[in-house]
Amino acid sequence: MAQGQATKVKKKKKSGFEARGEISQRAEVNRANRTRVRTLMRRLRTAITAGDATAAGNLLQPTMSAIDQAITKNVLHENTANRYKSRLTLAYNGVKAKAAK
């Protein structure tokens, strides 16, 4: 550009502002869902490591339900969620087997 000429300033569009607002709202919802799933998984893991089969049994179903909801809301990828569910179920079955002995 030659000296002394004004640079063009791009106008900010209303749709851009709206999109940014929607993105931040979705990010907040996704964060809340992800936190809920991780908290339930953490509680279940602590019950499993403590060897408490009854507490783990009470936490297993709500945890699986939260993971499934995270899949439907696209918070977790389906394969990742299925891996989590598989590993948690295997760990729970191990604790349950030890408690039955």
Distance between the termini: 83 Å
Strand percentage: under 5%
CA gyration radius, whole angstroms: 23 Å
Q: Mean of the pLDDT scores?
A: 92
Helix fraction, binned, reads: over 70%
Low-confidence spans: none
Content-based structural category: mainly alpha
Give a verbal description of the structure.
It is built from three helices and no strands. It has about 100 residues and is mainly α. Helix 1 packs parallel to helix 3 and helix 2 (about 55-70) runs antiparallel to helix 3 (about 80-100). The longest helix is centred in the N-terminal third of the chain and has 37 residues, at about 15-50.
In summary, what is this structure?
With 101 residues, the protein is mostly helical.
Describe the secondary structure blueprint for this structure.
Layout: H1 14-50, H2 53-72, H3 78-100
What are its keywords?
101 residues; rod-shaped
